[in-house]
């Protein structure tokens, strides 16, 4: 009888874990192994011991910076605790913040998700000191829910930066911190539903971004040329989500300041919901920083 009860308890526990895992997988997309609850629990045991940090030690703190947006409800204390070897530029986005000091960095408005803070940092500092490495990062440290899109087995942004090879960033100019292609780069044969020709034209009008079919020195698209090219943009712009990346100072300066001002102006003026405008920018950061359309 005791053995039967034990067996039933084990079956109940297994069933409960299975159902919980299925629910999590149904909510957290894409449904791939890195987001599997069992894999997450396994990685939580001894991960740091198996894979010690390979943090860069020859780049001084004044020459590398983490840029992140934050709301009053966000806990950003982990930046100082876990990344003491980096500068931190925290942009408060709440209109009437109860946390930000008078000298705190602020965005002109809370719009477009993280994109407003990222562009504002570049605009604010373009003619001041920009470190050789700039990492644009979300405000969350880790967590299965908030940071599911962080490739680190524990979904930990601090671990990601500890393992980031800064020399690689300098060589490449732009590095997406997410290597997993899903979501964002698994259906490259399909049109990108978030990016239309009209949107491309609006964002890059009067900037140095060329047509895909044009020479690098040719100015950005006109409405007529966009129409002539059909769906060339939406069919050819894909990248891994989710707007966390590292950029070299040299790559930032390949564009004139006015480009960043014009792109932010689109973000300020668009009637699109934050979810949509922010998602569109997710698919354009690699283009803004000089990479191939499918990255």
TrEMBL record:
InterPro entries: DUF3431 (IPR021838). Pfam families: DUF3431. PANTHER family: EXPRESSED PROTEIN, PTHR37490:SF2. This is Uncharacterized protein.
